[in-house]
């Protein structure tokens, strides 16, 4: 497994654990109320699970498993590292914006995510091909 | 394919069917004149889809396909793998049953079941994270 996939998949696992922890707190709070402010974690829960976990898990796995451009050639991996950094920063900004009422984090976070996906699409595009071509 | 992966993937397909059934009920509630309480199925539908189908499919395929941990324990601790499966499914099923009831029948005081569900799913997910982490490695 290439190093970029290792970092993306492990980051995805961390988002998964944290996102589910936020969800578990809200579910507990729904059954046995603890603090009404826990509902502020809803966007954090959704963001960390849909983007931080599932999207990043899919991108990290795709980078690992798609046909290579040649023996151990994955394309310009710098694009992937930039995407990894942007995606994780973007998820954290968006995830923190609602519970901390930092609305200024939302747009930069979303822009980082879309840039990250564009970079990964650019990196993976030529690897979506038939084997041995 | 290991037995645990088969359990995950087949359970995932059953949850997908249940999720879509819940969605049919939600979509037809006004047409069929179903009681407003049917809307308590909305979070149930969403979590059947995302936890029951998507997550269980990912768990099953990751358990099967990720790089081997060691020659002796290729898929990490098997007990942790089965515990993850059990806890995730118990947590989800308890949620599916209890979440609508907590709203429809508050006098039954079943809120503690949601706490049980939350703790089961939380434990399952962190077990998965801990058991999968060392299998994500460079060759």
Describe the fold and architecture:
The complex is a heterodimer of chains A (133) and B (139). Chain A has 133 residues and is mainly alpha-helical. Chain A has helices at 3-31, 42-65, 77-97, 106-124. The two termini of chain A are 22 Å apart. By secondary structure, chain B is mostly helical. Chain B is built from five helices and no strands. In chain B, α3 runs antiparallel to α4 (78-104) and α4 (78-104) packs antiparallel against α5 (111-132). The longest helix of chain B is centred in the middle third of the chain and has 27 residues, at 78-104. Chain B starts with a helix and ends in a 7-residue tail after the last helix. The mean pLDDT of chain B is 96. Chains A and B meet through α1 and α2 of A and α3, α4 and α5 of B.
Oligomer classification: heterodimer
Structural class of chain A: mainly alpha
Largest sheet of chain A: none
Principal-axis shape of chain B equals elongated
Number of helical regions of chain B: 5
Summarize this structure as a short list of keywords or feature phrases.
heterodimer, A: 133 residues, mainly alpha, 0% strand, B: 139 residues, 74% helix
Short description:
The complex is a heterodimer of chains A (133) and B (139). Chain A has 133 residues and is mainly α. Chain A contains four helices and no strands.
SSE layout and pairings?
The complex is a heterodimer of chains A (133) and B (139).
Chain A: H1 3-31, H2 42-65, H3 77-97, H4 106-124
Chain B: H1 3-27, H2 29-32, H3 41-65, H4 78-104, H5 111-132
Helix pairs in contact in B: 1-3, 3-4, 4-5
């Amino acid at each position: 497994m290439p190093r970029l996939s290792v970092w993306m998949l492990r980051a995805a696992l961390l988002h998964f654990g944290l996102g589910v922890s936020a969800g578990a707190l809200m579910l507990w709070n729904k059954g046995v109320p603890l603090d009404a402010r826990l509902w502020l974690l809803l966007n954090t829960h959704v963001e960390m699970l849909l983007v931080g976990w599932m999207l990043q898990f899919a991108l990290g796995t795709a980078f690992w498993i798609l046909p290579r451009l040649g023996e151990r050639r994955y394309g310009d991996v710098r694009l992937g590292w930039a995407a990894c950094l942007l995606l994780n920063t973007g998820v954290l900004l968006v995830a923190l914006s609602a519970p901390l009422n930092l609305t200024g984090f939302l747009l930069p976070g979303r822009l980082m995510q879309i840039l990250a996906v564009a970079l990964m699409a650019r990196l993976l595009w030529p690897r979506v091909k038939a084997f041995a071509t | 394919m290991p037995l645990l992966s088969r359990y995950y993937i087949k359970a995932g397909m059953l949850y997908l069917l249940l999720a879509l059934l819940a969605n049919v009920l939600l979509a037809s509630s006004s047409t069929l004149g179903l009681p407003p309480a049917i809307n308590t199925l909305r979070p149930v539908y969403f979590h059947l889809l995302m936890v029951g189908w998507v997550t269980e499919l990912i768990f099953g395929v990751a358990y099967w396909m990720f790089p081997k941990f060691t020659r002796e324990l290729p898929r990490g601790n098997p007990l942790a793998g089965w515990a993850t499966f059990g806890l995730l499914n118990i947590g989800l099923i308890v949620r599916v049953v209890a979440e609508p009831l907590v709203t429809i029948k508050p006098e039954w005081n079943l809120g503690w079941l949601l706490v049980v569900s939350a703790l089961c799913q939380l434990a399952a997910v962190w077990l998965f994270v801990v058991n999968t982490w060392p299998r994500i490695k460079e060759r």
